[in-house]
Known about the structure:
Chain A is built from two helices and three strands; from the N terminus they run H-E-E-E-H. By secondary structure, chain A is α+β, with helices and mostly antiparallel strands. By secondary structure, chain B is α+β, with helices and mostly antiparallel strands. In chain B, the strands form two sheets. Chain B has a four-stranded antiparallel beta sheet with strand order 2-3-1-4. In chain B, strands 5-6 form a two-stranded antiparallel sheet. In chain B, helix 3 packs across helix 4. The model of chain B has no long low-confidence stretch (mean pLDDT 91). Chains A and B meet through strand 3 and helix 2 of A and helix 1 and strand 2 of B.
Amino acid sequence: MHPRHSKKEVNDVLDYADQQGFEVEQTTAGHKWGRIKYTCGAFISIWSTLKSPHNHGRQLRRWVDQHDHDADEVER
Amino acid sequence: MTEWTFRLTLAGLDLTDAQLNALFEAGCDDATFSLERDGSVLGLFDRAAETQEDAVLSAIDDVERSAGVGARALRVAQDDDWLTASEIAERVGRTRQSIGQLVRGDRGPGGFPAPVARHGSPNPLWSWAEVEAWFQRYEPDAVPASGPKLSPDFLAELNDLLDLRERRRHSPDAPWRPKLAEALPLGA
Lengths: 76, 188
């Protein structure tokens, strides 16, 4: 189970990323909450201080989806 | 105010904590930053502004002026959804089968965009931007209303300028430059 983010719209995407096999890492530093990491070395940064939890969640979700597809390509 | 969704490809960054916090403080609190496998950095923006120019140029300015970061914008792109044939069918109000016919060219005008991922798998993914443009041409009524989009001409011109800026940065004293500027003046 990954560490919890206090904003539900972000935490839901972390659940999703976790299920898809991404690593969720909490390494808070200032406005940064942590990262979603992918096996290839790519990562996306998660804010703790949020302007729009909705938009941030959507940006994270789109990134997870597009990298999940990379995984499919590598497997073939 | 309108919200514009786009992504910037950035150079000169590796997304350290200090860089991220500087970007946030500079106004990029409406963006999410990623480091890609090839080492490039993306900024995914949802920026509220009156016009597309204001949105994109203010984002570039925020990134490039972030204290001590030294980042440069290399490229701007409309953000895009990657969809399966079933998801495309849902968006344009057709069946999955009829999308398959359009893809194969069995029906319709042909020239359906090629998939962008999972090529040759049973469930490939298409760029919604490309698919939407195709429908816009051949069946505009099928295209659902969506948020505002950056104009392709605006993006093309802006990206040409960013390319040119980058090229001049790498070779500031190229010997052919005066001759080129004389023969092909910008704005002529």
